[in-house]
Amino acid sequence: MQSLSNKRKVVSDKKMTLAERIYLPAVFGGMWITFKHLFRKNNTLKYPEEQRVFAPVYRGMHVLKRDEEGRENCTACGLCAVACPAEAITMVAAEREPGEEHLYREEKYAESYEINMLRCIFCGLCEEACPKEAIFLTDRIVPTEFERDEFIYGKDMLVESLDHRIDITKRQHTGKRSAI
Amino acid sequence: MVKVTIDDIQIEVEEGTTILNAARQIGGDVVPPAMCFYSKLPGTGGKCRTCLVEVAAGSEKDPRPMPKLVASCSTPVMDGMVVKNKTSERVHENRGGIVEFLLINHPLDCPICDQAGECHLQDLGFEHGKSATRYKEKRRTFDPITIGNKIKLHMNRCILCYRCVAVANQLTDKRVHGVLHRGDHAEISTYIENAIENDFSGNMIDVCPVGALTDKTFRFKSRVWFLKPMEASCSCSKCSGKAVVWMFGNEIYRVTARKDKYGEVESNEDGKTAWICNECRFDKKDASKWSIEGPRTINRHSVISQNLYTSDRKITDKKLN
């Protein structure tokens, strides 16, 4: 039959020559190729000593931002959860009590906010859906764990701490509000 | 019977029908939106100006066009009247202005508001509104108050449509709330925070086109698009017992009346409006007290249909909510 791909090779069982039979030229040929690679540029990084520079739009672990006064931006509107194609986000809303104005920006806040990092596909649709500039994907990498339930990140993992703010200005500043 | 043409569609309606009702008899795109008019509550309408339409020819006898746009909810049709709604550039432009007016004092707190997803002002703003506001002055603000023990009033969000006042007037025997003050100072109030305790007072939550009156038992519990609306009925001595229960798993989060595509409470077989009583609305949150008939048909353009509960949707021709 006519070959369609033109890649078909006819297998032959012709008698090998002496050089082919002692294999040594082929062995040295292979070793020469290996030797040549020693002087090539290295493609791998010695992680974690060396770290690769991420693109400004890299989508890694999420952060729930606070505003200038340290109040949580998230108001548990549920738009991230409805936008999430992997259904990774769940939340429970609660009403802000009088006296908690320094903690939460709006009168409703997320009492619990969970992202299942095993379900998350890091598409960034939650960030796009967020009307309050609360959730952002950062250049941090989700660390490996041994247990499955450790991948369900609650507010303790997601909300940025007051003294260790996560800078997203260069990457995802939308210009709607001055971000920290 | 009189002949009227709305957006080049001719229809014969009974004398005395308003333009809006004539348009609703045609249905579809030609129906002007209405924020204050509620067909089940006589006396409503004429306040929000959302339903303004252009009358290109007044009647057969006097075919001059009306100089100004008219409120279709309170203007009766005349024989040979030619009305333009969708086809009129003027109407479209004016409606944008009306939306801007309605949004002057309306806060942009849809992410917080429980009405988001089924709010008529949200739909109207989405269709006709501008993406930015020109309003620079301070908005009027009120603290949310509790009227009765089950209803929360956010006066900030109120657009003063007077629907809830009509509910109180027509469904309850003793009205204890109304609109106080005038103009910019107008507000819905019970005056000295008088409790609203009548059995049917909860229906004002259903008629509210915005999130000004909300169910306290559902307050911030969930978002409508995470819940599954199911048609359910119960035997109730006070009301028809026909309602929609909004479920999450096997739990009932809230109970509302059944609403048609105009957001109005549906009628029963006997022609009466299926208002539900406060006991059914606020206290029956136990799924065993309801007999669940099946899922409610939700318009696929509604955000409520985003809740991914699609597999067991009832297939009917009804287009609701």
Write a structural description.
Chain A is of the alpha+beta class and 180 residues long. Chain A has a domain at 62-172: Alpha-Beta Plaits (2-Layer Sandwich). Chain A has six helices and five strands, in the order H-H-E-H-E-E-H-E-E-H-H. Chain A has helices spanning 18-22, 24-37, 79-83, 125-129, 155-158, 169-172, and strands at 62-64, 89-95, 108-116, 135-137, 152-153. In chain A, strands 2-3-5 form a three-stranded antiparallel beta sheet. Chain A starts with 17 loop residues before the first helix and ends in an 8-residue tail after the last helix. The mean pLDDT of chain A is 88. With 321 residues, chain B is of the alpha+beta class. Chain B folds into three domains: 2-101, Ubiquitin-like (UB roll); 113-121 and 135-218, Alpha-Beta Plaits; 224-307, no CATH class. Helix content of chain B is 16%, strand content 19%. Chain B has six helices and 14 strands. In chain B, the strands form four sheets. In chain B, strands 2-1-5-3-4 form a five-stranded mixed beta sheet, with helices on both faces. In chain B, strands 13-12-11-14 form a four-stranded antiparallel beta sheet. In chain B, a hairpin with a 2-residue loop joins strand 1 (2-6) and strand 2. Chain B starts with a strand and ends in a 26-residue tail after the last strand. Classes of the chains: A alpha+beta (180), B alpha+beta (321). Chains A and B meet through helix 3 and strand 2 of A and loops of B.
Number of helices of chain A: 6
Give average pLDDT of chain B, whole number.
Answer: 86
Strand neighbour order, sheet with most strands of chain A:
2-3-5
How are the strands of the largest sheet of chain B arranged?
2-1-5-3-4
The largest chain-to-chain contact, stated as pair and per-chain residue counts, equals: A-B, 16 and 16 residues
